[in-house]
Write a structure and sequence with these properties.
By secondary structure, this protein is mostly beta strands. 0% of the residues lie in helices and 59% in strands. The protein has strands at residues 14-15, 30-31, 36-37, 47-56, 60-68, 72-73, 76-81, 87-91, 94-95, 100-101, 110-113, 117-124, 127-137, 140-149, 157-162, 168-185, 188-192, 198-207, 211-222, 228-235, 247-250, 253-256, 261-264, 274-278, 284-300, 303-319, 325-341. Strands 2, 4, 5, 7, 8, 10, 11, 12, 13, 14, 15, 16, 17 and 18 form a 14-stranded antiparallel β-sheet that branches. The protein has a nine-stranded antiparallel β-sheet with strand order 22-21-20-19-27-26-25-24-23, with no helix packed on it. The protein has a two-stranded parallel ribbon with strand order 1-3. A hairpin with a 5-residue loop joins strand 7 (76-81) and strand 8.
Length: 342
Amino acid sequence: MAEAYAEREIFSPVSLCDSTGNLNREAVGWSRHPLHHCALKGHPLRKKRWNYWCVTSPHELFSVTLSNVDYLGLPFVYYINFDTLEMVEKTWMTPLGRGCVLGDEVYDDASYRDEKASLSIQCKSGNISMRLTLAEFGNHPLEASLTFQQPAGHESLSVVIPWSDKNFQFTSKHNTLPASGVIRWGERKIRFSPDQSFACLDFGRGIWPYKSFWNWSSFSTRLPDGRTLGLNLGAGWTDGTGMNENGFCLAGRLRKISQDVRFLYDATNFMAPWQIKTELDDSVALTFTPFFERIAKSDALIIRSEVHQMFGRFSGTLRADDGERVAVNDVIGWAEDHHARW
């Protein structure tokens, strides 16, 4: 019979790797605030680094990712209008990650620059600023100036997944960060206001096996009583490791879920409703009903990836560790199916 994991909570700064570049076993655990220093070394062509940002409002989504998979840099940007289902996406590759600057800690600055794109992400005094310019995005130039607030004491979920001493991943998931700013895209102005818009960060650093699969779901919302609620659930890639990335942030406090979650869906029809539930009890009991499918495929010799990222509405309940049942009613977010050889 499956049991809840005995996941260790970490309270002090720790290095992800030992002196040889393998996993530091003292780093295995989870924390409410980022405490890991993720200086990767050795393991040629196997190191993976990324900062994925996604900003949502009730009507729109804008996402910016800066990633370096050791032999390639993969910046990408996409926009979705939830009302019209318009989507524009741009991905490009840079040999050996040229131009990608990614730090070893969650709040380190990040940047990218080439002749047609410029990205700067800076973390200062409880705010994160993003500045992006693209010479061409959907046939128009784009300029984005966005700010993500980090409320005092706001908790997040950081965790190390230990496949082995030579394969491991640190992930840090942040949601319900109030977002504000303007995107100027051709003649359009897209505005995000902090009362209705939230940013999500997926920060990853690790040494991955060549073949991998994962499910991931996330949302950020404000409940009718004014509290914020942010969800992060994953499966597949963490199975059998004794650790997972499951939890939700209610009014700025993380509620860790130390058991696996199952994503039940039809892989021949991703638009059909999904069921997402915890294995042992009703801590998570959600129905996810997609309204839009984003398919992203890469095939560049040794790197192959296929993502079905579904955007839709979550309904159901979450149960907090104090027994409170939190109702989730038609909250916009995403769930995905991702297969990769990288």
